[in-house]
């Protein structure tokens, strides 16, 4: 049997009597993200680009595997529960439903209401709402839209944007049904894709969907196009930070995060 020596008397070793604390890793803000089940891009993107002192925390809502309007609408039933499972004892500054097409299928107001049930006290937002706000921030009223979506989902996003007074001059969807396909779309391809879908009268190009690795090349896309480009995860990062009161300007992630 191993002999364990008694600890020193705390009175002669004060460090043993009181734990030492600092502000921790999330002293500036705590942001929660509710994801769809097969999402594999957002977590890495958010953790990689959060400024120092801002924590990113995640949980997943429930839906069928195939990405369609009907399957995405089913997310509404588990948004509150998923939000409630993120730091329930500590609380969040911001909670976001991190799915662009899911926001549109459930409804922006309904999504935020469900998030608020699960994370009372946190500011709420949605990925589609973040995109809408980002387009407004850069003054984009006419855009070209690209996405990995099937036609019905692309049409849903077009309607959502046009209801927000954004004119979609050109829209293209890649026709992909599963997240496991969307996450494999090459960032280099997205640079060429953005140029292919651009419209000469568009103020900006929007690449919609959190599963795409667009944030990796958003700077390159803007340089190639000579105009603003917005992608879902860039817009969500910007919106969540600004809602949390974090005004840091971040390099390498497009003009949105450098200038707004």
The CATH topology name reads Rossmann fold
Q: Tally of extended strands?
A: 8
Q: What's the order of the H and E elements?
A: EHEHHEHHEHEHEHHEHEHH
Sheet/helix structural class:
alpha/beta
> Which CATH architecture is right?
3-Layer(aba) Sandwich
Unreliable spans: none
Largest sheet: 4 strands, parallel
Task: Describe this protein's structure.
The protein is α/β, with parallel strands linked by helices and 260 residues long. The protein has one domain: Rossmann fold, CATH 3.40.50.12500. The chain has helices at residues 42-49, 69-73, 76-84, 100-106, 108-118, 127-137, 151-163, 179-182, 187-197, 218-225, 232-243, 255-259; strands spanning 29-35, 54-60, 94-97, 123-126, 142-147, 167-173, 204-207, 228-231. The strands form two sheets. The protein has a four-stranded parallel sheet with strand order 2-1-3-4, sandwiched between helices. Helix 1 links the parallel strand 1 and strand 2. The radius of gyration is 21 Å and the shape is elongated. The mean pLDDT is 94.
Q: What's the gist of this structure?
A:
This protein has 260 residues and is an alpha/beta fold. The protein is built from twelve helices and eight strands.
Topology:
Elements: E1 29-35, H1 42-49, E2 54-60, H2 69-73, H3 76-84, E3 94-97, H4 100-106, H5 108-118, E4 123-126, H6 127-137, E5 142-147, H7 151-163, E6 167-173, H8 179-182, H9 187-197, E7 204-207, H10 218-225, E8 228-231, H11 232-243, H12 255-259
Parallel strand pairs: 1-2, 1-3, 3-4, 5-6, 5-7, 7-8
Please tag this protein with its features.
single chain, Rossmann fold, 4-stranded parallel sheet, 8 strands, 260 residues
